[in-house]
Design brief:
two-stranded antiparallel ribbon, 15 strands, eight-stranded parallel β-barrel, TIM Barrel, 386 residues, alpha/beta, 12 helices
Length: 386
């Protein structure tokens, strides 16, 4: 570990612990083997959100993809009145919706959720379309600036760019509940264009599991890029977790998870994802190919990447080992963790039982003052000033 801490937005060791709801048909007892009771339905995915809320997680990621499942923003709107305290981190692919209408849609859900909403910016290809990295990230950059401009600007709004030419007499329809800049923006991606986008515009940079030295190097690069734009960002880690009473039981659970996996079927499942050839996925594939037992470092098991794009590894161990691994990431400056495990309901409960109570947690949007201190005298409701 470096003796020179990476500049971070919040030096305290308080962290945000998020869970994951399998909107994109990603829930299994045995990886790669479909199970009807775990399919991506409104009821099952809602059960995961309600469970995480009940158990005290601060946030939950709602993924986006062009496969059978739930639309993330619509799902979040339906869930918002059903939860007590948890934020929803909604993955949105930039370019799918005309930006002013997207700003209004996000603001509407933000009001329904009373500020318990964050946005995960996605820049992968739109369904049925293939574009270069440069085009996708340039479009995303414009959209983020339009969203933030409409959330933060009173009165008329004008944007003239490469992809959008917008003139609006008012930004009132897009005003969110969160008045200090709008919902937090989370973002993940390690290509140069992706990192530049996050450094310029986003609040939380999410990384996928790699060795600690690679994670630290990525964080240093991102901190430097953000500083160059006069900004600081928070860092997050998206990883699976397998925690059991003993290390032997945890390792056995990992092996059981892939015990019925057909490797060819696993590759087919990975290829369905629109990010299956991204720089981040390829880096994880590289690390897994170099390991002999699927462990890319102590307690970090990469077997999930045999049948999953995106986040491909899990922290595996007993409660003390998992806690200690998280503390090592916290030492580096990670302040947000987006966790998951198979089946998602079961592992959500196990992590909450063995590890979550030991962690000093906080919602990042609350820590950064995004939520009103009290209900405004003239509240905004569904994006319209009353």
């Amino acid at each position: 570990m470096s003796s020179h801490p990476i500049p971070i937005l919040s030096p305290e060791r308080k962290i945000e612990i998020s869970w994951f709801s399998a909107l994109c048909a990603d829930d299994y007892e045995f990886l790669g083997v479909p199970d009807g009771k775990l399919r991506s339905s409104y009821q099952h995915c809602g059960d995961i959100v309600r469970k995480a809320d009940q158990l005290g997680y601060q946030n939950i990621l709602l993924p986006s993809g062009w496969i059978p499942g739930q639309d993330a923003l619509s799902f979040a709107a339906a869930m918002a009145p059903q939860v007590r305290q948890i934020n929803q981190l909604v993955a949105l692919r930039m370019g799918e919706v005309w930006p002013p209408m997207l700003a209004r849609a996000i603001a509407t859900v933000d009001h329904i959720a009373q500020g318990k909403l964050c946005v995960n910016i996605i820049s992968s290809d739109l369904p049925g379309q293939h574009e270069s990295n440069e085009v996708r990230y340039a479009r995303s950059s414009e959209i983020i600036q339009i969203l933030q401009g409409m959330w933060r600007t009173d009165g008329p709004f004008q944007w003239k760019g490469e992809f959008y030419n917008i003139e609006l007499p008012s930004t009132d329809p897009a005003k969110p509940y969160q008045q200090n800049g709008g919902p937090l923006l989370y973002f993940g991606g390690i290509s140069p264009a992706a990192q530049e986008l996050c450094a310029k515009h986003c609040d939380v940079f999410l990384m996928w599991p790699e060795t600690e030295d690679r994670i630290e190097a990525t964080m240093r690069t991102m901190a430097e890029k953000a500083t160059a734009h006069g900004r600081k960002i928070n860092f997050g880690l998206r990883t699976h977790v397998i925690v059991r009473e003993t290390e032997a039981e945890a390792r056995a659970a990992a092996e059981r998870l892939i015990s019925k996996l057909d490797r060819a079927k696993g590759l087919e499942i990975k290829a369905r994802s629109q990010d299956s050839q991204s720089a981040g996925v390829l880096r994880q594939d590289e690390l897994r190919s170099q390991s002999k037992d699927l462990y890319i470092e102590e307690h970090l098991w990469s077997g999930i990447g045999l049948a999953r794009s995106g986040c491909a590894s899990a922290i595996v161990g007993d409660p003390d080992q998992v806690y200690s691994k998280l503390q090592r990431y916290i030492d580096l400056g990670v302040r947000a963790f987006v966790l998951s495990g198979y089946p998602h309901l079961d592992e959500c409960d196990l992590f909450a039982r063995y590890v979550l109570p030991r962690l000093d947690t906080v919602k990042i949007n609350q820590a950064l003052g995004r939520l009103p201190a009290e209900t405004p005298e003239t509240p905004l409701t569904y994006g319209i000033r009353k």
